[in-house]
From TrEMBL:
Stored CDD domains: Ubl_MoaD (cd00754)
Gene3D superfamilies (UniProt xref): 3.10.20.30
Pfam family, one: ThiS
Protein name: MoaD/ThiS family protein
Organism: Gordonia westfalica
C-alpha cells in the first residue's frame, strides 16, 4: 500500500518495496532559467535528502543547474538551509543568491 502522495515500486536485487513520494520543486531567479520552468514535480524515495534532490535535478537539467545548486539555499518546511543531509517533505524551494541587498 502506498502512503498519500506516493506510490510503491519494486526494485533492487532483493526486490524490496520502496515508497516514492512526489515532491514539488519551486525555482526562483536563475534556477528558473536553468530548469526552463518555475516549478516541477519529481518522484523520490520517502526520506530523500536535499543531496538526492540535487542529483535528480542535475540529471534532468545539466551543468547549468549544477552550478546554481552549488550556491543555492533550500527552503524546506519554512527553514532555509544549505545542509545537504536535510530530509525533504512535500516541497523544496531552490533559492539562488539574489542581486541587491
Amino acid at each position: 500500500m502506498a502512503d498519500s502522495g506516493g506510490q510503491l515500486i519494486r526494485g533492487g536485487l532483493d526486490s524490496e518495496l520502496c515508497a516514492l513520494r512526489h515532491l514539488q520543486v519551486n525555482y526562483f531567479a536563475a534556477a528558473v532559467d536553468a530548469a526552463g520552468c518555475s516549478y516541477e514535480t519529481i518522484a523520490l524515495p520517502t526520506g530523500a535528502t536535499i543531496a538526492e534532490v540535487r542529483q535528480e535535478l542535475i540529471a534532468r537539467h545539466g551543468e547549468k543547474m549544477a552550478t546554481i545548486l552549488g550556491v543555492a539555499a533550500y527552503l524546506v518546511d519554512d527553514e532555509l538551509t544549505r545542509d545537504l543531509s536535510t530530509v525533504v517533505s512535500e516541497s523544496v524551494d531552490i533559492m539562488p543568491p539574489f542581486a541587491g541587498g
